[in-house]
Each structure stands twice: as C-alpha cells, then as structure tokens.
Amino acid sequence: MPDFQAWASAHQQRFEDVLRRLLPQPGLAPQRLHEAMRYSVLDGGKRVRPLLAFAAGELVQAEVARVDIAAAAVELIHAYSLVHDDMPCMDNDVLRRGKPTCHVQYDEATALLVGDSLQSLAFQLLAEHKLNDDAARQLAMVKLLASASGSRGMAGGQAIDLASVGKQLALPELEFMHIHKTGALIRAAILLGAQCGAALDEGQVNRLDHFGKCVGLAFQVVDDVLDSEADTATLGKTAGKDAQQDKPTYVTLLGVQAAKKMARELHRAALEALSEFGDGARRLRELADFIVLRKF
Ligand code: GRG
User: Fold this and answer.
1) Beta carbon of 85 within 6 Å of any ligand 1 atom
2) CATH code for the domain of 225
3) What is this structure's pTM?
C-alpha cells in the first residue's frame, strides 16, 4: 500500500487531468470566460476536499471514476467561492494560490461570471454523470451539495463573516460561522465521496459526518494560526489578512497557544469518530493528520 504522500500526489495528479477534461475547453466561446474559469481552477490548491472525497470513497469501495465527478463538483464550488471571496466587494485580495486573483488577472465582471459558471457546472456534473446505481441516492447528492453551498451552508457562513468584521464574537458564534463557511463544504466532500459507493447505515453516516465536522473546524483553526504565523510566500495568499481586516479569529479570540490546543483536540475527536471503521478509513485518518499538521 502506498504511503500517504504517494497516495495523495497520485490522486492530485490524476484529478488535475479530470478537471482539465471537465472544464470548458480552451478556445470554446466565450473564450475569455472559459480561459478565466480554467485559470481559477487549474494548477493550484491543495485539493483537500477532493482528497477527502477519495478517502471516503475508499471506505465504501466506490468506483474512482464516480468519485472523480463528485470531487470535481465540490472543488468547482470551492474555486467559485475563492474567486468571489477575493473580489473588492468581499475580501478584496490580489493573491490566491500564488497567482494574481481572478478579478486582477481579468476584471471584476469576468470574476463574477467565473464564479457563477463554476457553480452551475458543479451541479451540471452531478446531474449528468452516473454516480450511484440508485437514482434516489444520486438525487440526494445534488441536494447535499446545494444545501452545503447555499445560504444555510457556505454562502450563509460568508454572510456572517462579512457582518462580523470589527466585532467581538464569542467562541460559539465564531464556531457557528466556520461550521457554515468552511465546514459545510468539507463535510459535503466526505459525504459525497461516501455516497458513490456501498450504502452506510445511519450510525455510520452520522459518525462520518461528525468526523467531517471536526476536521472542517480543525481546518479553520489551523488556517487562522497559519494566517497569523506563516508568510505570504508559503501560503500563496496574503498572510496576516485577518488582523489587518479586524476579523475575529480563533487566534484573536483564544491566543495562538489555545488555538493550537483546540486544533489538537478537534484532531483527536475526528479520529475518535472513525474508531469503528477499521482499516478502510486509513486515508481519512491520514488526511485528518495532514489538515492539522500542515504548514500551508
Ligand atoms: C463567496 C459564497 C462565498 C463564499 C466564500 C470559503 C470562503 C467562503 C472563503 C474563503 C476565504 C477563506 C480564506 C476561508 C478560510 C478557509 C479556507 C476555505 C481557505 C481556503 O481553502 P484551501 O486552503 O485553499 O483549501 P486551496 O487554495 O488549497 O484550495
């Protein structure tokens, strides 16, 4: 069995080709929009959400070609959220994944349309490809991604985030925001990967979802720590942005040491949620380790 690094980079490389194939091809009209969509999705990013989907797919012996589509749908939603988040009306950033942000490289109207089009493409993929022999389970996947990305999920979390600038949030409020803004899509990636294979019982789905909730929050706590400690070159995005924008974070609320302790506790709880799954959950466990120990 390959070690985690070999497993992850094999998937990342294969998945890059999957995305290249699924995105509108260069030269297809409208050319500038399609070029900007490819610019925003390809050649960058850790692909954490797709890797979580692949790991969950392994747990249920799903066909990789099916998980590829589910993972691509999640990654397109993620890419759209980054493009819109970077725009002047939101976070107003110029650097993403080590490159100029979409609205800087192209223009604001194009960035808006890139996000819109990536979101539509994500749902088109889920509707167009066979992901499960049971049509009702496939329909449930469409609903899952819609609620994870919409106003009761990621977009809602973003709305709370924008409203919280300059405010002092209590820990439960900060947690509520991140469970939606970052956590909802991470949970969806895991559950969508698992929906491509053999059905899990209700208890197993709940444990997997709890794992997703813990790693989703841990991801954000680590993101806050990195924003305060790492440099721009390492992150590929502007470091220190949270403090600069007077945004409440786990670091501003708890301090760096307590935030790191919280990440360790979430890591432990995530692994605990997988304790009954046996060796099939090996890659999920390794991804939880990666998310908490990552340096970028
Ligand atoms: C615009 C509807 C809408 C939502 C935006 C996800 C999000 C909501 C904004 C991103 C801003 C941000 C820095 C969030 C913190 C955590 C996070 C999602 C970081 C970026 O994800 P990574 O680290 O990025 O997985 P890569 O580039 O590796 O894919």
Assistant:
1) yes
2) 1.10.600.10
3) 0.94
